Amino acid sequence: MILVFASSKGGVGKSTTCAALGAALALEGQRVLILDLDQNRTVHRWSRKTAIPGLTVEAVTMGEFTGILKSRLEAESFDHILIDLAGAREVTLFKAIARADLVIIPAQASEPDIREALVIAGDVRDVEDTAGRKIPYRLLLTKMYPLRTRVSDFAYAELARLGLPMFKTVLVERVSYREMFLNGQPPSLVETGKGAGAEIASLLAEIEDIVSTEASDPDMALAAAG
Ligand SMILES: Nc1ncnc2c1ncn2[C@@H]1O[C@H](COP(=O)(O)OP(=O)(O)OP(=O)(O)O)[C@@H](O)[C@H]1O
Ligand SMILES: [Mg+2]
C-alpha cells in the first residue's frame, strides 16, 4: 500500500508517525520503503541510527519525486511505500495524494491544527475529483495529553461538527516517540504491546482495515496489505 503523511503545518508528527509505522511493518517481515521529502530529513537521519531488516529510507528532492516513485513501483521490490512530506502545501503534496491508498493527516488537538487538517482534507477531495478515484483519508490526533482536557473536548466536538473522518487510535505525547529519533529505536521494538508500541500496532490495524475496504481497487489493496 502507499501511505502519504500530509499536513501543511510543521511539527505535528508526520515524520514520527511515518517512521514508527514503517518500522512496525518491517518488523512484521514486510518490505518497506520510506520516501523522505521532509527538508529536515528527519526520517533519513533516523534510519542511519537503526538497522531494521526490510526497511529502506530514501531521501528524495521534490523534483525527483515522481521519477523515483515510478521506478520503485515498477521494480516491485517493496510491499509498502510510505511518503513523508514536507510541512508545506506545495505541488509534491498533490502528486503524492494522487498516488495514495490512504492519506494520513496528523494534527494536534488545537484549533489551528484542525483548520489546517480541513484544508488538506479539501485538497484530497480535489485530487479525488481530478483523478476520478476514491482516495481515503483520516485525521490522526497526535501528541495528545493522556487525560481529558478542555482542549481535547473542544477538538472532538469540532471534529464531529466538521465531519472529518479520523482514526480511533490517537498518539499520546510520550517520551518514546521523541527518543526514537535520538537512539534510533522504534516504539514497536522498545515498547512491544504497550505504550507507544501498542498505539502504533492499533493504528496499523486500522490502516490495513481502511485500505482493504476503501481503496479504489480492493483486490490490489488487499494484496498490497499482505
Ligand atoms: N506523540 C508524540 N509524543 C511526543 N513527541 C512527539 C510525538 N509526535 C511527535 N513528537 C515530537 O514532535 C516533534 C515534531 O515531530 P515530527 O518531526 O514528527 O513532526 P512533522 O510533522 O514531521 O514536522 P515537519 O513538518 O517539520 O516535518 C519531534 O521532536 C518529535 O519527536
Ligand atoms: Mg517531518
Walk me through this protein's architecture.
By secondary structure, this protein is an alpha/beta fold. It has one domain: P-loop containing nucleotide triphosphate hydrolases (Rossmann fold), CATH 3.40.50.300. It has ten helices and six strands. It has a six-stranded parallel sheet, sandwiched between helices. The site of magnesium ion (MG) has 6 residues, from helix 1.
Topology as a string of helices (H) and strands (E)? EHEHEHEHEHEHHHHH
Helical residue percent band: 40-55%
Unreliable stretches (pLDDT < 50, length at least 5) are none
Mean pLDDT across residues: 93
SSE layout:
Elements: E1 2-5, H1 14-27, E2 32-36, H2 42-49, E3 55-59, H3 65-75, E4 80-84, H4 91-99, E5 102-108, H5 111-131, E6 137-142, H6 150-162, H7 175-183, H8 187-190, H9 195-214, H10 218-224
Parallel strand pairs: 1-4, 1-5, 2-3, 2-4, 5-6
The structure holds adenosine-5'-triphosphate and magnesium ion (MG).
Q: How would you summarize what this structure contains?
A:
This protein has 10 helices and 6 strands; from the N terminus they run E-H-E-H-E-H-E-H-E-H-E-H-H-H-H-H. With 226 residues, it is of the alpha/beta class.
Features:
alpha/beta, 14% strand, binds adenosine-5'-triphosphate, globular, 226 residues, 6 strands, Rossmann fold, six-stranded parallel beta sheet, binds magnesium ion
